[in-house]
Specification:
Two copies of one chain form a homodimer. Helix content of chain A is 44%, strand content 21%. Chain A is of the alpha+beta class. In chain A, a hairpin with a 2-residue loop joins β10 (205-207) and β11 (210-212). The structure holds a DNA duplex (30 and 30 nucleotides).
DNA sequence: CTCCCACCGTGACAAAAGTCATCGCCGAAC
DNA sequence: GTTCGGCGATGACTTTTGTCACGGTGGGAG
């Protein structure tokens, strides 16, 4: 017997407006699949078509260049959905998805989901909401990439991390410099140098991968120029 | 008497699935407004909420930095819609819209349109389609910005223009270097220099603003490195 | 015809980004 | 304890990007 995924679907924003009964029905159409950490879930250009939902774990969504350089677009966690765009325009995936942790995805047939959206416009509106959110974030990324230096993007990211933390707390960089580089759209060395420079200037303190920001405002000011 | 805008609405992809009668109904709720060339339709951060439709003319959608530099996100023409994201999440506009030509926009009340999407899920699906398209384009932009030099982006743009032309034809640059810079996310001088360099290398021929590409493949190859 | 003015082109720098190679350190495996 | 491998730091350069300042030009307004 396959387990019921209704409980998992309940945590999916896309399905926020559905009743438990409705979730049960959907859950019966869902197929689970596991991925090892580092596994490629799908690649840019590949044909998509189904809706994927993160049941557990995290996925990196990124774009890859021929040179091997990568740019992180987002990280999707439990409850997030992937590949909605492909579901609706039936086009290929426009990015690559790689399991950041051990990962379980639920797959829902594309045409089934499309139909479901027609039958349940609330769900369609949620899809719109999710896409809208992505669009906003992506525009932010574009802005950072065109207007800010690597330094600026790094500072912005540190400030973002700091916002999720109690003020003054030391934050652990979960990623290594290579991953940070992918996030910021640059290369390892520049991350290293810029962290070093920020440290040298006293704007951050660092020991190992633990960062403290002695003066948030000073860092913020730095961002404006 | 206000004119009927049903004919105009017919050309809007969002409403592609609606009958003429339905369009007539919608048309009655629409308010037109004119803008001079160069006029700011809305600014980033401003509160939105209504759906805007390009009745005639063109709008530039762009993001602006504090320094005055700009990055073009898209150009919307007759039949395109603006501000869908704000309609559905009721957030502020995430970009600035500026009339590129004399412009007439139709405005449709946000909550009315949201309701309409619930009543007519086909319309909601079209919204999803439009947002999906934007997302794809924007990801392409992100890729260009992170992986390509100004030169590369310029070449890519020239090739894109060339694709819309009969092969071998000379293409007119409709934009001046300043506007090209905004499109490519850089500054005027770099556009000038890079065009000059491409010319010097024989990859393009230029007289005034008329560009010919003697060897498309040569230019394409150039892009890969 | 002449005078502007909007645009283009460029030289000269300064700063940032990216590449390559090398060194050192820490922690896990043996 | 020793070894090895992954990761971070960094020096030395090259290339690209961006800034400032000027000089030139062509086309429209008067």
């Amino acid at each position: 017997m396959s387990p019921s995924f209704a409980a998992s679907l309940r945590r999916v924003p896309l399905f926020a407006n559905l009743s438990l009964d409705q979730l049960d029905v959907l859950a019966q159409h869902v197929v689970a699949r596991n991925y090892q950490q580092g596994a490629v879930v799908f690649s840019e250009g590949e044909a998509g078509g189904d809706l994927l939902i993160v049941h557990s774990g995290q996925v990196r969504i990124l774009r890859t260049a021929a040179t091997g350089r990568q740019q992180l677009l987002s990280i999707e966690r439990e409850g997030s959905s992937l590949g909605e765009v492909s579901v609706f325009d039936r086009g290929p995936y426009s990015a690559t998805a790689i399991a950041l942790t051990p990962l379980t995805l639920l797959r829902l047939d594309g045409s089934l989901f499309r139909n479901y959206c027609v039958q349940h416009p609330e769900v369609a509106l949620q899809v719109i909401g999710v896409l809208g959110h992505r669009l906003r974030r992506l525009r932010g990324l574009v802005e950072q990439l065109t207007f800010q230096s690597v330094r600026g993007r790094l500072i912005a990211y540190l400030l973002e991390l700091a916002r999720e933390q109690p003020a003054g707390a030391t934050l652990r960089l979960a990623e290594n410099n290579e991953e940070l580089a992918v996030r910021l759209g640059t290369v390892r060395e520049l991350v290293s140098r810029n962290l070093g420079r920020l440290h040298g200037e006293g704007l951050i303190r660092m020991q190992r991968r633990a960062v403290t920001i002695p003066d948030l405002d000073a860092l913020r000011t730095e961002l404006e120029k």
